[in-house]
Amino acid sequence: MIRKREPHNAKIGLMGGTFDPIHYGHLVSAEVARQQFALDRVIFVPAGVPPHKQEGKVTAARHRYLMTVMAVMSNPYFYVSSYEVDKKEPSYTIDTVRHFAQKAGGAGLYFITGADAIMDLLTWKDYEALLEACTFIAVSRPGYSLERLREILGRRCPQYLDKVHMLEIPALAISSTFIRERAALGKTIRYLTPDPVERYIKKEGLYLNRL
Ligand code: ATP
Ligand code: MG
To answer: What's the whole-number average pLDDT of the chain?
Structure first.
C-alpha cells in the first residue's frame, strides 16, 4: 500500500484504531479527511495489543484485521496494514508512524484520529516526536469538543498547534463499544457497520457473552 517509489509530494493518511469492530464512524472520518486534505490514500492500521486496553478483553487481531479489510474493500483509496497486528509487543503510535515514515520516503503523513483519542495525545509516548513526524487530523465526534482540544493544545504546546488540523465531519454517534453491547444482547447492528462486517460478526459469534 506504500508504493515502492512514493512520489515526494504524496500525502498518506493513517487511521489507527482497535477496530473492535470497525464501523461507519471510522469510515466516514477517513473518507472526509481523505477528500478534505487531498490524501492519495488512507491506510487503516488495526492495533495489535493496544497499550491502553486490557489484554484479553480485545477480540483476536485476526478477526479485527479481517473485518477492517472487508469494510474498506470497496473504497479504492483505502488500504489496511497488518504492521501492528503482526508485532508481538505492544505498538505505540510513534513506532507505527516512524515505520511508515521510513517506508514512504518523503511523503507527508497525516494521522487521522477522533476528538476523543486526540485529547489523550499529550499522554501518548513521545508525543512531541509524534507531532514532529506527522500532521494530525482531529475529526469531530459527538460528545467531544474540538474547541476544547484547540484550547488545551494552545496552552500546553502552542508550537504544535499548526500540526493539528480540526475537521468537522457528519456526526455519527456510533462506537465499537455500542456495537459490542448490542451484539451481546442479540440486538441488531445492521447499518452501523458495512454488511459484510455485520454478517461476519454473526457468523463467528463475536461479542456473545461479552457483557
Ligand atoms: P471503542 O468504543 O472500543 O473505544 P471506538 O468506536 O472508539 O471503539 P476505536 O477503534 O477506539 O473505535 O477508534 C479508532 C479511531 O476512530 C479513534 O481515533 C476514534 O476517536 C475514532 N472514532 C471512532 N468512532 C468515531 C466516530 N463515531 N466519529 C469520529 N471518530 C471516531
Ligand atoms: Mg475508542
So the answer is: 91
Cell 513521545 found at: 126
Q: Which residues contact 12 (CB under 8 A, 6 or more apart)?
A: 2, 6, 39, 40, 41, 42, 43, 100, 104, 107, 108, 109, 110
Å from CA of 24 to ligand 2 middle: 13
Summarize pLDDT for 165-190 with one digit per residue, the tens: 999 999 999 999 999 999 999 999 99
pTM above 0.90, yes or no: yes
73: CA distance to ligand 2 center in Å?
A: 22
Q: Which ligand is nearest to the CA of 178?
A: 1
Q: Is the CB of 174 under 6 A from ligand 1?
A: yes
Q: In this predicted model, what pLDDT tens digit does every residue of 124-168 receive, in sequence order?
A: 778 889 999 999 999 999 999 999 888 988 888 888 889 999 999
Q: Please work out whether the CB of residue 177 comes within 6 Å of at least one atom of ligand 1.
A: yes
**What ligand has the least distance to the C-alpha of 23?**
1
| Domains of the chain, residue spans | 11-173
Fold of the CATH domain 11-173: Rossmann fold (3.40.50)
The one-letter code for the residue type at 88 is: K
User: Distance between CA 142 and CA 103 in Å, rounded?
Assistant: 34
| Ligand 1 atom having least distance to the Cα of 177 | 2
